[in-house]
Known about the structure:
- This protein is α/β, with parallel strands linked by helices.
- The protein has 19 helices and 32 strands.
- The strands form eight sheets. The protein has a seven-stranded parallel beta sheet with strand order 11-12-10-13-16-9-17, with helices on both faces. A six-stranded parallel beta sheet has the order 18-28-27-19-26-25, with helices on both faces. Strands 2-1-4-3-5 form a five-stranded antiparallel beta sheet.
Amino acid sequence: MPDSHATSAEVAEVLLPLALASAYSYGVPRGLRLSPGDYVEVPLGPRSYIGVVWEVRPAVPTNLRMRDVTRRFDAPPMPETHRKFISWLADYYLEPIGNVLRMVLRVPAALEAPREQVAYRSGGTPPRRMTPQRQRVLEILRDGFPLPAGELAQAAGVGTSVIKAMAKDGALQPVALPALRPFSAPDPDAEAFSLSPDQQVAADALKAAVRESRHSVTLLDGVTGSGKTEVYFEAMAETLRQGKQVLLLLPEIALTAPFLARVERRFGVEPAGWHSDLRPRERERTWRGVADGSARIVVGARSALFLPWANPGLIVVDEEHEGAYKQDEGVTYHARDMAVLYGALARFPVVLSSATPSLESLVNVDRGRYASVKLRDRHGRPELPEIRLIDMRVAPAPSGSWLSEPLLAEVRTALDAGEQALLFLNRRGYAPLTLCRACGHHLDCPNCAASMVEHRFRRLMQCHHCGHQEPVPAACPKCGTEGKLVPVGPGVERLAEEAARHFPEARLAILSSDITRGVLLRDVLRDVADGVHNLVIGTQLVAKGHHFPHLTCVGVVDADLALESSDPRAGERTWALLAQVAGRAGRGERPGRAFVQTHAPDHALMRALASGNRDAYYEQEKIIRQNAALPPYGRLAALIVSDTDGPSAERFARSLARNIPPTDDVQVLGPAAAPISVVRGRHRWRLLVKAGREVDLQAFLRLWLKDAKVKGSLGLQIDVDPYNFL
Ligand code: ADP
Ligand code: ZN
């Protein structure tokens, strides 16, 4: 027998958080007991990595020189269902499984023993030498909240050496942060409303699903304000009574302080949070709490699915129709679909809630795969606001302006009555396009095939695809003529200017994610709710779940905007957005009205909106999708080829198209240059794969792409169930 280096009795297959399709083998040192799910440290090349034991088996004599596991972390092992979830997701989205694991291992600190942490607060004495950097550090600490050196440095945009120097100087004072706060047990009955009969029926259905402790999916379908939140709270309470954990998923944008406060009131404890703004220590606290089971309620954005759930009993997906649940960069996945999958693997119920459900979910109800629970009435109010169309062909706005006379009259009426009005336009900035009137030149992004968008408030031009910014030029960069650059089309800032001209006395607020964010957003939202502002100009930031009791008049400035698109879900999305925006009106004492400016009042969607006939619209949409064999009646996958070199991207896309495995079941469209043909300097080509529902699309893609050589600067992204067609 050749000499063997395998000295261990056991071999552990360890999955690493790297772009690898399978686990690597490591020896288990004698004296170390490992089981699947254990978090371990292993060497790879010159580095060491945290990985997860996927399998343990007896060692066999082998020639391979196998390195040993270095150590096992003293953390609760990753449950089997979670490991299955990771494998399944990787298979479905054709993602190297290691990349999926990386989503779970985002908080390495949570695997170490909890430790005290040194943080810094202002020392009271100014530094001996004040610099702009030091100034910024003190600025950050002004709210009195001590921060660890790393976070402080990052927040102030300085190096940690600056922090150390200031600490030495006495300008910063070290304080020991307490170990992580433990989670308190929630009270399922802390503060429940007495439900209306309709709500009670719905809540009972969801509670029954929870009590059955098996997998089921229920679509909770009811207009905005009908009490869906109160109803799914009942399902959450029931899960808590069973001693299990609950995940409430929300689109990131809806994860607001008032909503978290509402959850806290209902269950008597602050829920664990999970979103992109979380401080590292809070992240660590949530991760640990989810892993050891002490975090019983987590309210989180889509990536909360990847937390290592110890004892999951329910996932609620609020606003289940939201496109934001689909992540299409990095590891692609749809959080709603993966929540359903998780429930199937770990045998617990999933609740999907929406006022404007996705066609996917409605069709799953039709097919009998999902149960449906409906809330017909708006709590304490009979119906959605009345929606009226304003035909812009009949009542056009003067050139260079966007508000028609009928809409202006309605806003005036509301303001005169002491009520609040909202003008909705889903476009950030001042104008989407800037042109030179002398030479016709467009101001385009240097990195993307897209126009630069003027943001007048922030005095810059910005590309909405790559974030590139430039000062607003005084002269045309092409012909050099001054004073001839003109904005084309409206953004919210320009609309605000127009509104201010018409209503100079109005107390106006702009709600747009680029100008109103963080603390400012919180304050503006509160002021809008309190009626401090009576005229609100907003992007989709206003559409999500806010409760503005004084708001009675909503004007949708350009309802046609979202319809002009090749995206099969454009209609559905427009419907959801417009219904949500309109639903902001009349949530208080007085009834609301909504006005929709459109050039296509005869479009089926507009007609359904005006008649309030949602079901008619959905039925129509189903027929369109069915005839075109589009989701949910067929399956799609997109391949996006990109390269810094345009011809190379095109060549590769064409070579893919030449090598399609013979098939009768699958249709491949393209390649075609992507609608946004260059992003961040990368030229993009798309292929669209279309198949019937019964086709194993993944198997086809694997076969097709197994020999594809993605080399050098080429990129190939596989997007199963695409939501983005740009
Ligand atoms: P949805 O989630 O369907 O938009 P919510 O659950 O947010 O509706 O309810 C809308 C408003 O009505 C909230 O302020 C909520 O607190 C209130 N509400 C709902 N149901 C009841 C009830 N049974 N008793 C008292 N208030 C309720
Ligand atoms: Zn750009």
